[in-house]
Amino acid sequence: GFVYLLTLTAAVCFGAEAALAAGCVCMGLCAVLLLIRRFPLFAVSLAVAAAALGSFNVWTETVVLPAETMAGKDAFFTGTICELPESSYGRFYYIVEVDSIEWEDAPDVGKIRLSAQNALAVEPYDRIRGRAHFFLPAEGEGFDKRSYYISKGILLSAYLYDYEEKQIFPAESLPPYGYALKARAALKNSLYELLPEREAGLAVGVLLGDKSGISGEIEEAFRTGGVSHLLAVSGMHMAAIYQMLSLLLGRLLRLPKRLTCLLSMAGIAAFMAITGFAPSVVRSGLMYLIFLTGMMMSRQPDSLNSLGASVFLMCAVNPYAAADLGLLLSFAATASIILFSGRTAHWIRRFLPFQGKPPSGGKCRAALHRTGRGLFRQLAGDISTTLTASAGTAPIIMLSFGTFSTVFLLANLLLLFPSTLLLECSAIAAILHLIPFLDP
Predict the structure, then answer these.
(1) Given CA atoms 335, 338, 343, 346 in this order, what sign does their dihedral have?
(2) Closest to 281 (Cα-Cα) out of 249, 250, 240
(3) Residues 402, 394: Cα–Cα separation, whole Å
(4) Which of 131, 133, 346, 408 has the most CB atoms around its CB within 10 Å?
């Protein structure tokens, strides 16, 4: 899984032609190692890398490039609104699953990001027919917008000709994801009804990853402090949701272990859907689902296996998933924490007070020693988690943004607990606000 993701990350940067050439080289080296019967681990890794590069090239040639032939053309289309609308700089954006394009030999373009000057009176899974101009998102070096949108299954952008007639057909029925979108909208509206606009925007950003209500000033403050990851739903959010479910189901309701695992899995899947199946959420969600499946089967869960399996499944479905920066940051942080956090915490504890055996001289001193040791052990764990996660994500941040925060450690330590509290309290308050007799 790790080799598959890292290979695809390189393929996204260098393109399909380079991926094809590199895939042939990997296959050749793998064949040589198999013939001489040496270094079997490297042979397997090269075979996995060759498979990743081959899948990337095939996906580009059969899915991406045919859809791009529609770029620069005007045509009538019919499609289904499949996400909640967004607005930015006076324009409105809709993700549309295109069913048909009235153009000779039109390719299958899958999803498009449709923009309009005026808001459309549509709900998720309404159908729309109109005339649009199709185009490609702006390119850039490395992780450009085009690759980012492809990682979400969006192959083209388009803008609607507002002055021409368009037709909207209400949805006849909703699939399960449609109800998740309704729940997302309801939770967002709840927080805006409960809180002032500025605070509600921050709560929605932390809970749902929706940054549309967060001002540029606040975003810049989070970025400067090295804590912008708090505004993108990721592993920290999934951990908070899992802990909340475990506390409610296991300790408060005292349900059996397997039933607790099963209901927790359902809650995690629901949270993944409500947050829009963002790649970083899917990565952490799949990891928890695999982890909980192992617990239900009375097997010892393994975090590295769960992480590798989750990223492999995501990249096998869509090789361009490696173009999502949130997924790469989430993967790097999680892998670093699993591999190095425990040893780093053990090293830090050597320099903290209240270590070693409790002193003699009475129960009060012994109790004070135990309390102090527990607090400083927690502090050592928080510092090691922050250090290892930041060390893992630092290369990606510097390559992507050309900057790095010098106060990230202090900022993360100060915000770790309150951000988790904000996430959990926002979720509980938003849900209770939707239940009339619990609203007060």
Answers:
(1) positive
(2) 240
(3) 10
(4) 408
DSSP string, 317-378: H-GGGGG-HHHHHHHHHHHHHHHHHHHHHHHHHTTSSS-SSPPSS-HHHHHHHHHHHHHHHH
Rg (CA), the chain: 25
**Locus of tokens 């606040």:** 218
Question: Residue 219, class by beta-carbon neighbours within 10 Å (0-12 exposed, 13-18 middle, 19+ buried)?
Answer: middle
Task: Kindly state the helix (H) or strand (E) to which residue 116 belongs, with its residue range.
Answer: strand 111-116
Neighbours of 29 (CB within 10 A): 17
- The pLDDT tens digits for 287-309 are 889 888 888 888 887 888 889 99
Phi then psi for 195, rounded to 5 degrees?
A: -125, 160
State the pLDDT at residue 254: 85
pLDDT at residue number 354? 60
Report pLDDT for 366: 67
Task: For tokens 């606000």, name the residue.
Answer: 433
- Average of per-residue pLDDT values in the chain: 86
Q: Which residues of the chain have pLDDT under 50?
A: 141-142
Q: What single string gives the DSSP state of each residue in 264-292?
A: HHHHHHHHHHHTT--HHHHHHHHHHHHHH
Q: Which of 172, 214, 197 is nearest to 80 (CA)?
A: 172
Gap between the Cα atoms of 52 and 57, Å rounded: 9
